[in-house]
Amino acid sequence: MTPLDIVLVEPQIPQNTGSIARTAAACKTPLHIVGKAAFEISDKTVRRAGLDYWPFVELHHHQDLETYIDKVKPHKFWLFSKFGTKIYYKADFHEKDALIFGGEVKGLGKELLEKYPEQVLKIPIQCCGVRSLNLSNAVSIALYEARRQLKLDEVD
């Protein structure tokens, strides 16, 4: 059993997905691609960004978010968006939670965010000229905070 899932909804930039796959491999965290990605996972840019870590990535594809939720049955899912009102480190992460991120251009969509307002988290940005963080960086921030809360990286 893996303690967390990374879920990307219709990712659009292959280098980000490759970098996220590398983080997923490093943390032994399954990576779920939901919907249609704007590229093929076999694309050279995705492979290059993931380097030679792809054999260590537990990769899954799902038609849509509802299919992912029905099949995987996460304990809780957290939606990451610049429109969130709750800061990510104030969330109470549990094993089998899903960390869900939208594509780089569209995000997760207003309808989904409005349907689950208590599950929408944001990563604060201090500079008003910066619209959002790089998707790969956002995934890393969220994943490592969840791992910290679950004490997955503690060494004796």
Describe the structure concisely for a colleague.
By secondary structure, the chain is α/β, with parallel strands linked by helices. Helices cover 31% and strands 19% of the residues.
Tell me what the structure shows.
The protein has 156 residues and is of the alpha/beta class. Helix content is 31%, strand content 19%. It contains 5 helices and 7 strands. A 7-stranded parallel β-sheet has the order 3-2-1-6-4-7-5. The longest helix has 15 residues, at 135-149. It is globular, with a radius of gyration of 15 Å. The model has no long low-confidence stretch (mean pLDDT 90).
Record field, number of beta strands: 7
Order of helices and strands: EHEHEHEEEHEH
* Number of H/I helices: 5
By secondary-structure content and strand pairing, the structural class works out as alpha/beta
The percent of residues in helical segments reads 25-40%
> Looking at the structure, what is the overall shape?
globular
Task: List low-pLDDT spans.
Answer: none
Residue-averaged pLDDT, rounded? 90
How far the N terminus sits from the C terminus, by CA atoms, comes to 22 Å
Question: Which percent range describes the beta-strand content?
Answer: 15-25%
Major sheet description: 7 strands, parallel
Radius of gyration: 15 Å
- The main sheet orders its strands as 3-2-1-6-4-7-5
